[in-house]
Specification:
The protein has 240 residues and is mostly helical. It is built from 8 helices and 5 strands, in the order ααββααβαβαβαα.
């Protein structure tokens, strides 16, 4: 076989492999160009799922499409588990921050029991809680949320009273006030106090147990037995 014919067969085989592997697909950028690499860099790692003989191989979830380039396979094998571990950690931090924000919204809310029912003004508990929000809550969560109550007018009246009380605590201001619908999930203080009283009443008085009667007699009996045994042994020695 001549060398020129061998070269033709070689290039024909390479072209056929390139076409069959999807390197040259209509609408795609030129192979191995910057645009082509940018397109292929989004390929997920792992075995591809294919359909053969009416079945999915493998039968569980796997990425589909063209196989990953060997350069990207080496990159994933060399730097694993990055960047996926960093993405997972970022997701966990995001959920954590969302939970912390939701918790501080509840903690910095002035609920119904913080206000007087007739005047919508803050009671002593509400003023103490407002002081904690304005001075001790973390700065990123320092927002006063006011429970709206039964109507929009009630929420506005409460917000006005909170604004007046907040000016006495912080004349310079800077703490936002937000009215929000709220349904406090908890128990009244009287109920909690009653449960505590019932708990204290159910405590049994302390009892002191005397360890004694039979044990001391046994001990004395044992000592007398020892003395009598000692006397017998002594007598036996005297008999000798």
């Amino acid at each position: 076989m001549s060398r020129s014919r061998w070269n033709r067969w070689l290039w024909s085989g390479l072209a056929l492999q390139a076409l069959s592997s999807g390197v040259l697909v209509a609408g795609e950028p030129a192979a191995y160009s910057d645009e082509w690499w940018a397109l292929r860099t989004q390929d997920p790692p792992g075995t591809r799922q294919v359909e053969k003989h009416g079945k999915l191989w493998p039968p569980f979830a796997r990425p589909q499409g063209p196989k990953q380039h060997w350069v990207h396979k080496y990159h994933h094998a060399h730097y694993w588990p990055y960047p996926y571990a960093a993405e997972d950690a970022s997701y966990v931090r995001t959920v954590w921050n969302q939970q912390a924000s939701a918790g501080y919204v509840s903690a910095t809310t002035l609920h119904d029991y913080h206000f007087e029912a007739d005047t919508h003004g803050l009671n002593s508990v509400g003023r103490d809680h407002l002081l904690w929000i304005a001075q001790f809550a973390p700065p990123q969560y320092r927002t006063v949320y006011v429970a709206q109550g039964g109507s929009v007018a009630t929420g506005q009246a409460r917000a006005s009273q909170v604004e007046l009380a907040l000016r006495e605590i912080l004349p310079e201001g800077g703490v936002p006030i937000v009215v929000r619908p709220d349904r406090f999930q908890g128990r009244p203080g009287q109920e909690i106090d009653r449960l505590r009283e019932m708990e204290l009443q159910a405590i049994q008085p302390p009892r002191l147990f005397t360890i004694g009667g039979g044990g001391s007699g046994a001990a004395s009996g044992g000592s007398s037995g020892q003395s009598s045994a000692g006397g017998t042994s002594g007598g036996a020695s005297n008999i000798r």
